[in-house]
Design a protein that fits this description.
The structure is a homodimer.
Chain A lengths: L2 H14 L14 E6 L6 H5 L6 E6 L6 H12 L5 E7 L9 H12 L14 H13 L8 E7 L6 E3 L4
Parallel strand pairs in A: 1-2, 1-3, 3-4
Antiparallel strand pairs in A: 4-5
């Protein structure tokens, strides 16, 4: 259990070489990316982004939850982003996962969660990405953003845009 | 409006050089990081993380919302992470921000949001990070994880751990 200590140690070297205090809170490319927490997704490298370029939002499954809508409204209406990219990925942990079974097991083991917890599992990657794109497009406070959905292949590193965005 | 096209073009070169198809869904360092969507936070570089090392969760403010709890339960109980690091940062857009004024303005301009939208603004960075740490520590399904809170300084690149974790 020393991953956090390792990160804090690595950060000392990072800070010693740090030269980017000039960066703005407003993303230089006016881009927001919504993607999964999966460890295999290195967002900046896979999308060619530099520090300062984009707002990056990540949760389990790249699901457009209420929290993602909150964050996107802030990004679009306050930080000035104009394009939103949903990036789902192959081999996602939520793909064909049994969330009900997990919830039941955790409840037996640890007692109930204080508020109900839906895992937002899905059966079809592209259909799921399309649903998330539609949730953003139908939100009245995000209508002026351009939204596109893509799937990342963890075996090839390739992004494949969905037909119809 | 060509940030997404630029990202897709950059990805072709990334995929050509891609060699990491061996990576596991289970984070190598058994680490989950919860941080902000802010464009100035390059999580991997600032924390010395390689691709495959950690689950990374990001939203506006590094707030432990229900969606973050969902994602952390999945990360801890399914993907095997054991340490959770909350990384807030200086100059966060939600710090001393007037969320009610923004909500009222957007409602006048675009009509009401389909579900109410709280921005989770805060007045004190360290107190906010501590609150988020406590939310995780008090969740029965995350009790076996080690949780620590740190603040990232966007002017120096330094992580500063909170007193008391």
């Amino acid at each position: 259990m020393n991953a956090i200590d390792d990160a804090l140690n690595a950060n000392r070297e990072f800070a010693r070489r740090f030269t980017q205090s000039y960066l703005s809170r407003r993303p230089a490319r006016q881009l927001a990316v919504v993607t999964c927490l999966d460890a295999r997704l290195h967002v900046e490298e896979a999308l060619g982004l530099a520090n300062g370029d984009a707002n990056i939002l990540r949760n389990a499954g790249a699901i457009v939850t209420d929290d993602v809508l909150r964050s996107l409204v802030f990004s679009h209406q306050v930080l000035g982003t104009r394009e939103i990219m949903i990036v789902g990925h192959t081999e996602c942990g939520l793909l064909r996962f049994d969330g009900q079974e997990l919830g039941a097991r955790l409840e037996r083991q640890f007692g109930p969660a204080p508020s109900p917890l839906a895992f937002h599992v899905f059966d079809d990657l592209e259909a799921n990405i399309s649903r998330q794109v539609q949730k953003i497009k139908s939100h009245p406070w995000l209508k002026s953003a351009l939204v596109r959905g893509v799937a990342y292949d963890v075996k090839t590193g390739m992004l494949n845009e969905l037909k119809g965005g």
